[in-house]
Amino acid sequence: MDTKTLAQLRCELETEQAELIATLTTRLREDWEKECDNLNVTDLIKESQSLPGAIRCLGDRLEKVDASLCAMDLEIYGLCADCESQIPLSDLMQDAAEQRCPQCRTSNYYHHDPAQRRVATDPH
What is the CB neighbour count within 10 angstroms for residue 42? Predict the structure, then answer.
């Protein structure tokens, strides 16, 4: 991926992260009477994921965006979190926070929804 495209995707992610932080902070304070003005991103994610509905979805998205920014810092952005193959640029352009390649997104083995996740069985 060229540096211009990477910079564009970083800008998109940083903008989305700032918007998510502002929205979550406001919603947690107004809807749930939570004191969250001094929470860091990790604490804000944890706080929002302990609540139901839209707040939890916002927290999940913030976690995904934050993970993508961390992957950029570690210079592993664009690699599938499961199999480490390259995620197609078209997928990243559609969702800069995409963390899985098409095969892992559709594979039954790599479901990260606990309701759909395969459970390893003990052979003994």
Answer: 11
